[in-house]
Design goal:
By secondary structure, the protein is α/β, with parallel strands linked by helices. It contains three helices and ten strands; from the N terminus they run E-E-E-E-E-E-E-H-E-E-E-H-H. It has helices spanning 81-95, 137-151, 158-171; strands at residues 3-6, 21-29, 37-45, 48-55, 59-62, 69-72, 76-79, 104-110, 114-117, 129-133. The strands form two sheets. A six-stranded mixed β-sheet has the order 1-2-3-4-8-10, sandwiched between helices. The longest helix is centred in the middle third of the chain and has 15 residues, at 81-95. It is globular. The two termini are 13 Å apart.
């Protein structure tokens, strides 16, 4: 059984020009999870399911994609947010039907101004994992949906999205 709790206070807004449903501050528990999953935002659109977690790091961030610990401001150790978000998505895939597995996107949002010293292009729209400033997130979600429409990839059917979103919302009560 999955249990979820949703907190609605202190929401960061996303101004999307595409149809979407958002669950904010979701905490999911399941017997197959090592620990509860805390997700800042789950955005459901016809082009994908975006798992967004915000990071409070500031200053210069040093790391690499496969290194589990990064440094912020020179000596503050933080868990690699890309790995942490992927772990959450992998856990979600254990309880969400396989139909949705190819539609997940990972976004790490930074609330403060940062300089990222991590090899790779973390703003590449062709990827499915991004590190973005809080102000860039809506634009990237819309770009992914536009790209899918141009490529004519089959979007998620609206009624499937509604069922998934309602199911997670129901579990939060």
């Amino acid at each position: 059984m999955v249990q979820a709790a949703e907190r609605l206070e202190n929401q960061t807004t996303l101004n999307l020009r595409v149809e979407n449903k958002i669950l904010s501050y979701v905490s999911l528990n399941h017997s197959s999870f090592n620990q509860p999953l805390d997700i800042d935002k789950m955005v459901f659109t016809s082009g994908g399911i975006f798992i967004i977690n915000y990071n409070e790091a500031k200053g210069m961030i040093d790391g690499s994609q496969d290194r589990p610990i990064w440094l912020s401001e020179g000596d503050v150790r933080i868990k690699n947010p890309l790995i942490e978000n992927e772990k959450k998505i992998d856990s979600l895939k254990m309880v969400i039907p396989p139909y949705f597995h190819d539609y997940f996107y990972s976004i790490v949002g930074f609330k403060k101004r940062v300089k990222i010293n991590v090899p790779g292009n973390h703003k590449n729209i062709e990827g499915n994992q991004w590190m973005l400033s809080e102000s860039e997130i809506s634009e990237y979600i819309e770009r992914v949906i536009l790209k899918k429409n141009v490529q004519q990839n089959q979007p998620i059917k609206p009624h499937h999205l509604n069922i998934l979103e309602r199911g997670l919302r129901w579990m939060s009560q």
